[in-house]
């Protein structure tokens, strides 16, 4: 049977285009009423038009995420327009890529404000509404491969995305007794945010122009289009995923995956405690015998 979200109300931040729009459209196609949020009014209104012309229900809230006032306005739009809020997808984001020594305070602050603080404020406001309704809810945050391992030139973005996955685990615990699930996804898809990646730029530009794109098989296996990520959003928003919470799930192309949580992989003990000399003497035969990779591993 098809998964349906009839009667549910969803907010998707940063949904005027790209991944956010793919999420919003898929939720609407499954029967949810959707609030399109974006700071680009033209993009938001066009997204609403596409959804409503296809038979869905959608309204727009034009505001940049980050502040408590913006988050409250987005949630209020859902309640005023459709009477409730059941699903939140915190997709809004920006990039300001620089190596650390060239990154300005403004570059850092904007990315943290949008991704990390924007997720914090929107989830806080949405959860209060879901708790007041007393019927549970679904919160889906958006991570990134850059938050899971090293990503050169993305100090701000990596920190924000790693923080969002940390949020997700904590909120899954805090919200459990209210039947509100919280999961993070790690999408890999061709969007405006991949235009600057060498080798992907031509494909990303074509996608952004609305052109048909035929991806090579080696890319298609784990990197696809925004529409390839959207089914996971619908699944996590549905009753089928009511027992799934606190997870970090990778989605891209033909691949889905489950990311592990941080955990201790090796331990060592010494009676009376450790001295610097004892650590140096024992390092290579105890916890330092095999160090953890910190950057994406490439097949040779």
Entry keywords:
single chain, 300 residues, alpha/beta, Rossmann fold, eight-stranded mixed beta sheet, 10 helices, 42% helix, globular
How would you describe the overall organization of this protein?
Strands 3-2-1-4-5-6-7-8 form an 8-stranded mixed beta sheet, sandwiched between helices. The model has no long low-confidence stretch (mean pLDDT 92). The chain has helices at 18-29, 41-53, 68-82, 105-133, 145-148, 155-175, 201-208, 217-220, 226-237, 276-282, and strands at 9-12, 33-38, 57-62, 87-90, 137-142, 180-187, 248-252, 255-258. It has 10 helices and 8 strands. It has a single domain (9-258), classed as Rossmann fold (3-Layer(aba) Sandwich), CATH 3.40.50. The protein is an alpha/beta fold and 300 residues long. Strand 2 (33-38), helix 2 (41-53) and strand 3 form a beta-alpha-beta unit. Helix 1 (18-29) crosses helix 9, helix 3 packs parallel to helix 4 (105-133) and helix 4 (105-133) runs parallel beside helix 6.
Largest sheet: 8 strands, mixed
Q: Structural class, judged by helices and strands?
A: alpha/beta
Indicate the low-confidence ranges by residue numbers.
none
> Largest sheet, order of strands side by side?
3-2-1-4-5-6-7-8
Helices, strands, pairings?
Layout: E1 9-12, H1 18-29, E2 33-38, H2 41-53, E3 57-62, H3 68-82, E4 87-90, H4 105-133, E5 137-142, H5 145-148, H6 155-175, E6 180-187, H7 201-208, H8 217-220, H9 226-237, E7 248-252, E8 255-258, H10 276-282
Parallel strand pairs: 1-2, 1-4, 2-3, 4-5, 5-6, 6-7
Antiparallel strand pairs: 7-8
């Amino acid at each position: 049977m098809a998964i349906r979200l009839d009667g549910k109300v969803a907010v998707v931040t940063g949904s005027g285009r790209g991944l956010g729009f793919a999420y919003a459209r898929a939720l609407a196609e499954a029967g949810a009423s959707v609030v399109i949020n974006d700071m680009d009014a033209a993009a938001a209104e066009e997204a609403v038009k596409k959804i409503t012309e296809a038979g869905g229900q959608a309204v727009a809230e034009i505001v940049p995420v980050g502040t408590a006032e913006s988050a409250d306005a987005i949630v209020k739009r859902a309640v005023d327009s459709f009477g409730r809020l059941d699903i939140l997808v915190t997709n809004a984001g920006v990039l300001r890529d620089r190596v650390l020594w060239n990154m300005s305070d403004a570059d850092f602050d904007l990315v943290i404000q949008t991704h990390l603080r924007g997720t914090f404020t929107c989830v806080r406001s949405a959860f209060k509404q879901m708790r007041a309704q007393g019927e549970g809810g679904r919160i889906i945050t958006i991570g990134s491969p850059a938050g899971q391992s090293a990503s050169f030139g993305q100090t701000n973005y990596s920190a924000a995305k790693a923080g969002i996955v940390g949020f997700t685990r904590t909120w899954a615990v805090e919200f459990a007794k209210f039947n509100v699930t919280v999961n993070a996804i790690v999408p890999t898809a061709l969007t405006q945010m991949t235009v600057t990646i060498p080798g992907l730029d031509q494909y990303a530009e074509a996608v952004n122009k609305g052109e048909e794109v035929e991806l090579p098989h080696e890319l298609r296996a784990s990197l696809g289009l925004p529409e390839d990520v959207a089914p996971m959003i619908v699944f996590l928003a549905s009753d089928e995923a009511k027992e799934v919470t606190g997870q970090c799930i990778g989605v891209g192309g033909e691949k889905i995956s489950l990311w592990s949580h941080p955990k201790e992989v090796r331990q060592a003990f010494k009676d009376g405690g450790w001295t610097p000399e004892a650590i140096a003497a024992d390092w290579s035969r105890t916890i330092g015998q095999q160090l953890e990779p910190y950057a994406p591993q490439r097949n040779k």
